[in-house]
Every structure is written in structure tokens, then in C-alpha cells.
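Researcher: Next entry in the queue.
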Amino acid sequence: MKTNVQIAQNLGFIKAKEGTIIPVEEIHKLRNDKILILSTGAQGEPNAGLMKMINGEHRQIKIQPTDTVVLSSSVIPGNEKSVQVVKDNLSRQGALVYHSALIDIHSSGHAPKDDLKLVMKLINPKFLVPVHGYYFMRAANARSAQEVGIPKENAILMDNGQVAELTKDGFKVTHEEVPAFYVMVDGLGVGDVEEVVLRDRRALAQEGMVVIILTVDREKGKLLKSPDIISRGFIYLKENQEVLEGIRKRLRALLGRLPAHQSIDADYLKTIIRDQVGQFLYNETRRRPMILPVIIEI
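Model: Structure for this entry, 298 residues:
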């Protein structure tokens, strides 16, 4: 923001008397009702100036009950919650808040069509590739390029991941593509989280999990003790004893049907447990938790 203000002053777009624009370190020399502060942070960015003022972390500025705060930008989709937190916390400290939903004070941070066309005229590029925006917005920029004399074939629209070859006299979109999607950062790993891992995490978050621990005789395949059942994020077992006993009943019946005096196939047994216990739990709760059987052979 400081850089933009300085550029605007140098170009003559901002004409202020000497002493009108002052460093933030000097505001204590003036009365509060003589100060207008331009700040970043209308979208609730945690490290922006406004949020530091609200949280009492700014070195020079604190929110006062007599302050009036004008949020001149509209809310960017996805930032509704953080912007609401800003407005709530300003109001808690006694400030009067104005925003674009109350009065027409919206000030866009984007250049209008005429300004974009002016830039195109000043630069006069041979090729123009609109970037950073929805496709239909970039298509509108391409049409604006034609209005200032750039040939239609030289106003090129590309999608994420496409590769272009630039030469001295040409610009060609190739058939090559590069990965251009979201990259999952997980701890120290970057981009190494597979779809199956994300699927399991979604299942755990939505339905929870049930761990079933069976201690069985390796040779006879018989249950040696009552199954241990652990639930996380699914049901509170102490208040659902009927469901718990229903699981144990089905486990005993399942193991009772295994051929006697025959070693068990742990992988096969785990699959049967997942299927039968999963169906039972769905019938009882209409939920499908992740079921993790653990077979301890003795």
C-alpha cells in the first residue's frame, strides 16, 4: 500500500499538501478526530494491519470506541466468516462499522475495462494472453484486445496446465500439459497424499471408526476371550450397550461357523468381519464407520 501511494504521488494522481500524508509513527502528534488511516485487512487476513489493530497487536494503533471503520471492499466469496469476525470484533470494541451492504461505498481493486484497454494501447503487444480469472472474464479481456487493434488470433486464451512455445515471431499453444492442480501439503510431505488416503480421512471425519480386536486360537480358530471393541467418532459405547452386544454376538457366530481344527486365514476373516459388522451397524444406525479388525493369533 505504501508503494502504491508513493507511485500515485509521483505520477500526480494523488495531490496532497505537504504534511497531509504522514508516517504511522507520527499519528500520536495529532488528535484522533484529525486522523484518517488507510489499512489492509478488510477480508479478515490474519497478518494484515486491521486485524493487528483489532487484536491489540499493532504498535501504534488501537481501536477506540469513537472510531468509525469503513470496509470499502466487498466480501470475496469464501471470506464471509473471517469478514464477519472482523465486523463483530470491531463492534465489540465500540467502533462504528460501515460496509458495502449498508451504503454504496464499494471500491474495486480491479482495473475497469477502459483502464485495461489503455494499458494495451500503451504497451501495444504483438500477443496478449489474459491470465488470473475465470475463463469468461479472460474471454472478455480478449475481446477488449480486439477493440484496440490486436488481431483475434493474437489474443490467446489458455487453460491451467497448457504449455505455450514462444519464439521471436510466434506464440503457439502446444498439446503438452503439466500438472496444475491443488497439491496436498501434509506435514513434511508435499504432494504425496494419494486419493485413497484422502478417501479414508473423509470417511473417518464423517462416520468415525470401530476397532475390533479378536484373540483366537491359531490352530483351532476358536475365540479365546470376549472381543474388544473400540469406537472413535462413531458412538459412545457406554450408552449403546445393545449395539456393542450385537457386534459381539455376530462375531461369536461368525467364528463358530469356521471349520474346526483348521488354521484361520486372517485376511479372509477380516474381510468377513468388515462386511457383516458393517451391515449390522448400518441397519442399526444408518451410518457406515470405518471398521478395523485386528486378529491376535495365539
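Model: The mean pLDDT is 89.
Researcher: Noted, moving on.
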